[in-house]
Specification:
heterohexamer; A alpha/beta (121); B alpha/beta (97); C alpha/beta (119); B: alpha/beta; Hypothetical Protein Ychn, Chain: A; 5-stranded parallel β-sheet; 4 helices; C: 119 residues; alpha/beta; 35% helix; globular; DsrEFH-like (chains B, F); Sulphur_relay_TusB/DsrH (chains B, F); Sulfur relay protein TusB/DsrH (chains B, F)
């Protein structure tokens, strides 16, 4: 299909300190209905967005970590996590809420280069 | 003087900048994305242990919970918003953004 | 103790506004007086009455308004910062007020503490 | 070439809005089509008509409005982000429009480039 | 005078990328009329605010570097610059628009501790 | 793919993060506070020289001028907004914020 675009969303911020990850997720959920070739890369502090056991009751902000689990139902299945970012933060795949593909920075860089559009959040 | 830090040390140099101005004895409170600094066994743990030889270190529990962070580096005291208020009652505040 | 708050970021986009609110709430609960919340930089956008967040989310403007109503906290937006960002008397919540930086100076002078929240 | 712009920060507080404008201006000058400026996150506050900066400073809302008038650039604010931040039809500039994220998807699909500005 | 407060403004951001330094300066100019004991500390990227030869015509933003030169006329004379921040950025006092006192981080830290109010910009 | 960086490398880790994903041959454009990275003879100069072995590096002249930055590290090409547009015409864009 000629008019399917490859669109990658890049999550680079920690959750809750700012809204970028949350509004990024809202964008992805809408875009998912348009049958484009979507992917999401979690790099740097973006990997924290997927951390298990987030409980935002105490800060009075609506939590959204579980919404990442809904991505699968929207056929957003290409979730890439940067290996170096995870390791630098002392995290492993077991700490994450959803199944992801853990890739090296170079591998994610190569995927970025195949995109028609990259949207930073 | 109470120093507060709200930035992730992985993304911002605020933590390092603040530490070079803090005087011995003054408390440091990590809040918001700043709490990633006190997550146990990360690469800032030894830096923090060093700081705690001269300065008490606190972290805001609601921010830790919101981010799913369980264990904190040994010696860090967790406080809730009322504990934050107590610290402000005891000290003038220097907010590092 | 008498506390002034300086809030330098707008609602939702940064946690600053939520942290300031939670701090103010806790201070009041502990018997302190929260004298004023002074809004500066993008912080002035905290008090627009047109805010309409999703039903299951907090309403930040309404929350500041209630803090003014119930606890007499002055909610003040800097006029110069407001004008730049399109915050005017036409859009401001009932308990909000647009004022000058001289007022912030008074707040800094008359309170035991000035606590800043921002990004 | 046909270019879409995504602007993620509000006016004045960050340079993003100025950079986006300067880039759009240069692209138009070089004969490209700037299809749309889509405002997201705090970016939605770029289009409030109550903006009133000092006389010797740029008027950012007016500048976007003129880009719409003179060059047919669509200036679009995301509805969900706008509602949170108190941006509604009551406060928006003439050439501004509040729309959904589906429109951004269309913009991403129909343009040769999507260029993002933010903080 | 008992009700003179010691108020320090801390400039930590580069100019133009964000408005914090500029709106900070506006705040200082107003506060100067209130006869408090004001000082301004430039640390980290804040030292760039004082860099000579800033010409903002090309970015379409009003410049304000020269307003720092007006501080003296408002009796704001305590301008402290962090030595380490200058050196790290390859700058010397000669690169700065105004006369300042260059201090070590520890010296500025000690001054901070004497303040009744510290306002970050 | 064109990579743009708008953060000061002294305050943010965006520069280092970006560089670890950039592919050989891809241009990097510094703008806004990002231009402090290309100031001649600062502590990022040798890092930049290393990057320029594989990637062309640009900086936005209006942002350099606004900040009073004169000399840039050897090998860095300065462009105006039209030069920025030219780069965007040649490449898809990856904005690092």
């Amino acid at each position: 299909m000629e008019d399917v675009k490859k669109i990658m969303h890049v999550m680079r911020r920690a959750p809750h300190g700012s809204i970028y990850t949350y509004e990024g997720l809202e964008m992805i959920l809408i875009m998912a209905a348009y049958e484009q070739d979507l992917s999401v890369a979690f790099i740097g502090d973006g990997v924290y967005a997927l951390k298990k056991d987030q409980d935002t009751a105490g800060i009075g902000i609506k939590g959204f970590a579980k919404t990442f689990m809904a991505l699968d139902g929207y056929d957003v299945e290409k979730l890439y996590v940067d290996k170096a970012s995870l390791e630098e933060r002392g995290l492993t795949e077991d700490d994450l809420l959803v199944d992801v593909e853990v890739l090296t920075s170079d591998e994610i860089g190569k995927l970025m280069n195949e995109q028609d559009v990259v949207i930073p959040h | 003087m109470l120093h507060t830090i709200n930035k992730s040390p992985f993304e911002s140099t605020t933590f390092e900048t603040c530490v070079s101005f803090v005087q011995p004895g003054d408390p440091i409170l990590f809040l918001e994305d700043g709490v990633y600094a006190v997550q146990a066994a990360n690469r800032f743990s030894s830096r923090l242990e060093n700081i705690m030889k001269t300065n008490p270190v606190y972290a805001l529990q609601p921010d830790l919970s919101a981010r799913g962070l369980g264990a904190v580096t040994d010696g860090v005291t967790t406080v809730d918003y009322e504990g934050f208020v107590d610290l402000v009652e005891e000290h003038q505040v220097n907010t590092w953004l | 103790m008498k506390i002034g708050i300086l809030l330098k970021e707008g609602p939702y986009n940064h946690q600053a506004s939520d942290s300031a609110y939670k701090f103010a709430e806790a201070a009041i609960k502990k018997g302190h007086t929260v004298d004023a919340v002074f809004l500066y930089n993008d912080g002035v956008t905290n008090v627009t009455k047109h805010m309409d967040p999703p039903q299951d989310d907090r309403d930040i403007a309404k929350r500041w308004n209630e803090l003014g109503e119930k606890h007499g906290v002055e909610v003040l937006a800097c006029i110069a910062a407001s004008k730049r960002r399109g915050i005017s008397d036409e859009v401001i919540i009932e308990k909000g007020e647009i004022t000058g930086l001289g007022t912030l100076t008074d707040i800094a002078i008359r309170n035991d503490r000035l606590v800043t929240f921002g990004d």
